[in-house]
Amino acid sequence: MSAYKDKKTGKWYLFFYYKDWQGQRKGKTKRGFKTKREALEWEREFLQKSDANLEMTFEAFVDIYTSDIQNRLKENTWLTKKSIIDQKILPYFKDKKLCDIKPADVIAWQNEIMSLKDKQGKVFSPTYLKTIHNQLSAIFNHAVRFYELKSNPARRAGNMGKERTKEMLFWIKDEYTMFSDAMMDKPISFYAFEILYWCGLRLGELLALTKEDMDIEKGTIRINKSYQRIKSRDVITEPKTPKSIRVVKMPDFLTEEIQEYMKSIYGIKDNQRLFPITKGYLHNEMKRGCKETGVKRIRVHDLRHSHVSLLIEMGFSAVAIADRVGHENIDITYRYAHLFPSKQVEIADKLSIERGEGI
Length: 359
Known about the structure:
The chain is mainly alpha-helical. The protein folds into 2 domains: 3-157, Tyrosine recombinase, N-terminal domain (DNA polymerase, domain 1, Orthogonal Bundle); 173-339, Orthogonal Bundle (hpI Integrase, Chain A), CATH 1.10.443. The chain has 15 helices and 8 strands. The strands form 3 sheets. A 3-stranded antiparallel β-sheet has the order 1-2-3, covered by helices on one side. Strands 4-5-8 form a 3-stranded antiparallel β-sheet.
């Protein structure tokens, strides 16, 4: 018997042997169980997980999934996934055996999720429903790829919701100029928005900038990190993608502005953040500026779209734009295809000239 009662505390504890993933025999002790049954159930779950036994509960496999992938993801990415798992998936599947979950179970779960409403009394958007389903499917895919589950029941059940392309909003230069004039009463806001609009940085990239990232002589910004505020902590991470690591050339007027801004920050050290503010602060400033000027309301991230649209209007190629803003794939840049001017007439005219020159 591996479960024993502690005469001093009156509670049960376990001691048993198992083989780890390298096949080595190890001892395991666990204390504090109220009943013998509870202790033996914990032992059973532990042994199933150590053997990756598909008879384990879905909740037990989520523990394995968490152990396998959590350290491979950025903290904020994992917290988003964990929230969906804890709130939308585990309440339904946690006590079911992993190997017993069928497509019909997934369909029943989908129907339940689609009937839920948010705090405003609205059902979840198709995009969010798709995100929830994709997380469930990711867990089963992990079991299929690494723990020999025969098939993914979430994939067989089919998705719920759909991915919806959000409307791409942006400001033309005149709109941004009106907005930026209203920001001049708060220098930190004004200079932050100047970089976002004229350089196309992501918000996290802007907030991670330090004094040593700014080369005033060359007029460049080095981008090699991103800022997140997680659980009341400032967290600096790697940028979104490898292509996000880049050096961006500033226009001359912006170089002068940033030099002026840095001189105004008394005693700033090379490794200190230039903009010690939060995303929430800039969202509120955006709201304030739009209200004061009457320009249409867009998101802070839409300043990045505004920068891309400005470059397109100026005639730069998709390749050059992708390099400047750090798109991982040029296909992302081509999502702005409707903004690129049609070249059909120009192509036809040049072909006519070419044919004429050849005669």
